[in-house]
TrEMBL record:
Zn(2+) 1 binds at H63, H65, H143, D213. Its cofactor is Zn(2+). The lineage of its organism: Bacteria, Pseudomonadati, Bacteroidota, Bacteroidia, Bacteroidales. This is Ribonuclease Z. Zn(2+) 2 binds at D67, H68, D213, H271. NCBIfam families: PRK00055.1-3 (NF000801), RNase_Z (TIGR02651). The keyword Repeat does not apply. Its EC number is 3.1.26.11. Binds 2 Zn(2+) ions. Belongs to the RNase Z family. Homodimer. Zinc phosphodiesterase, which displays some tRNA 3'-processing endonuclease activity. Probably involved in tRNA maturation, by removing a 3'-trailer from precursor tRNA. It catalyses: Endonucleolytic cleavage of RNA, removing extra 3' nucleotides from tRNA precursor, generating 3' termini of tRNAs. A 3'-hydroxy group is left at the tRNA terminus and a 5'-phosphoryl group is left at the trailer molecule.
Length: 304
């Protein structure tokens, strides 16, 4: 089974600190890197994580607040300097096209590659991207400006060959594709062999959901139900719940309630306010609601 790895490149919020970088993550699967948000300094974090710029398959921007997208001009310029040739898809909310167009006009006049910008409807949970490795769905969030979360779902084969049974019934190799499509097999003697005797069910796909920034928003629950890992912003602690409401952010406890109600397997919190010298209190409050909670930090790599 291939690695499905999440690298935390930055997990701080808007104001810069010496403790955290602005939000950015890299999700790796089957030799491809899917970049999620691109706060200032993301390309340096990519270097520190020993990831390759050439492996970046596509970029997913949650919203157009600077701590989530100010790293794009530098990153795109570096990719051009390195001679990228393949087209780069960039997904984001309304306004992302204008933002990328401005970057192209000012800094990428002689770019080595094309950029395809795809604006997503922030109001609906729908498929926004699909390739040979995974599907990506939008998650409507509730913030001060149009904001999207993303659900990454690995693609898995629904059926696998049961090789001993296939060999026993002498199924020709040319017929394997029909078995994997769910068809029965008829032997030369005319005996019909049911598909379930020749195949095994594939494993369930692994799923990762990214939800930042957002206030406590119960509609998220159905979108992320049962995921293997949920990243949910946890900007504030209980003592600043009114501040969280006023700024359309979440407390760590609210993030944990979402995780508990959605019956996710693991919760990862981040997007910490610069007020906090450490995330210990935020983590403790989250674990009171959902024990299987971890705290993000730069350099963390989680295997999903």
């Amino acid at each position: 089974m291939e690695n499905f790895d999440l690298h935390i490149l930055g997990c701080g919020s808007a104001l810069p600190t010496m403790r955290h970088n602005p939000t950015s993550q890299a999700l790796q699967l089957r030799g491809k890197t899917y970049l999620i948000d691109c706060g200032e300094g993301t390309q340096l974090s990519i270097r520190r994580a020993q990831l390759q710029f050439s492996k970046i398959h596509s970029i997913y921007i949650s919203h157009l607040h600077g701590d989530h997208c100010f790293g794009l001009p530098g990153l795109l310029s570096t990719m051009s300097l390195l001679g990228r040739a393949s087209t780069l898809p960039i997904y984001g909310p309304w306004g992302i096209k204008d933002y990328v167009q401005e970057i192209k006009q000012r800094f990428l006049a002689d770019s080595s590659f094309e950029i395809e910008v795809r604006e997503c409807d922030c109001r609906i949970h729908t498929l926004v991207h699909e390739d040979s490795s995974l599907r990506v769905f939008s998650i409507p969030l509730s913030h001060r400006i149009p904001t999207i979360g993303y659900l990454f779902e690995e693609k898995c084969a629904e059926l696998h060959l049961d090789k001993p049974s296939v060999d026993f019934y002498k199924v020709p190799i040319a017929y394997y594709q029909h078995l994997l499509a769910g068809e029965d097999y008829v032997t030369e003697e005319g005996e019909q062999i049911p598909n379930h005797r020749l195949t095994k069910k594939g494993r369930s796909p692994r799923r990762y959901a990214f939800c930042s920034d957002t206030k406590y928003h119960p509609p998220i629950i159905d979108c992320v139900r049962g995921v293997d890992l949920l990243y949910h912003e946890a900007t504030f602690g209980d003592e600043l719940s009114e501040r969280a409401e006023a700024t359309a952010h979440s407390t760590s406890r609210q993030a944990a309630v979402i995780a508990r109600e959605a019956e996710v397997k693991r919760l990862l919190i981040g997007h910490y306010s610069s007020r906090y010298e450490s995330y210990d209190t935020l983590l403790q409050q989250a674990r009171e609601e959902f024990p299987n909670t971890e705290a993000a930090f730069e350099g963390l790599c989680i295997k999903i």
